[in-house]
Amino acid sequence: MSSSSLKQVWPEPAEMTAEQMALAALRHEIDEIDDALLDLFRKRLSLASCVGQAKDAPTGPHTKLRPDREQAVMARMLTRAAPEDAEAVEALWREIVGWGLNRQGRLQVQVWAPTDPTRAYDGARLRFGRAAELKLVRDPQAALRFAADGHGVAVLGLNTDDAWWTALVREWSSLSVFDGFGGDIPTSLAVAKIDPAALPKGRRVVVSAGGDAGLGSSARRWGLATHHGWSLSLTDAALERGEIEGCVGAIG
């Protein structure tokens, strides 16, 4: 490295020790990487804007979320990442994807979780990134209406006095579950007006009344909530959104 380059990162290179010279060289290399990352990020944001204009979507109001595409991007990045970097890579790419989506219009997310709001809010923040506008709300039905009108996403808690999820096969049949927060057995679900073809690969979310709703004894199930004969569960059965079995979405 030339003396002029070192002057950019350290005032008087002639008076530096060997350790200080080595540190200055490392910092200079980091600065160059930062510059390259910024240029690539700007390019990605520009491409995201173009993708938003060309994106296939159902007619009428809807979100521009493509959970299947996001799932594929994340899986590819985590496959390439070292195991010890996986958590950092996931968090970084959530932010990158979120800011790319922001170029297509800021994502609005309403969160209702009266029993554990912090857990639901933090899960939504990690999933959608800081580019999304999150708001805690008091009325789950209003949040569902907000999502059904195509304005954004509703993140709603489970095992509460309001069994809002029963309406996903009736009043809010235009909405689909596409993610869950709180662990392998989620304590809150994300719903939006999602193109069924864009749902992630993974366990299907089923709302049923009085029994297993035809899922079959060979299909593994995970119970999430119950209410007056209704049940909400996850299953590994291969169901399509809207089938008679009561599939209302999927969690990757």
Automatic annotation (TrEMBL):
Enzyme Commission no: 5.4.99.5
SMART domains (alphabetical): CM_2
Listed PROSITE patterns: CHORISMATE_MUT_2 (PS51168)
Chorismate mutase domain sequence ranges: 17-108
Gene3D superfamilies per the UniProt record, alphabetical: Chorismate mutase (1.20.59.10)
EC top class named in words: isomerase
Record protein name field: chorismate mutase
Organism field: Brevundimonas balnearis
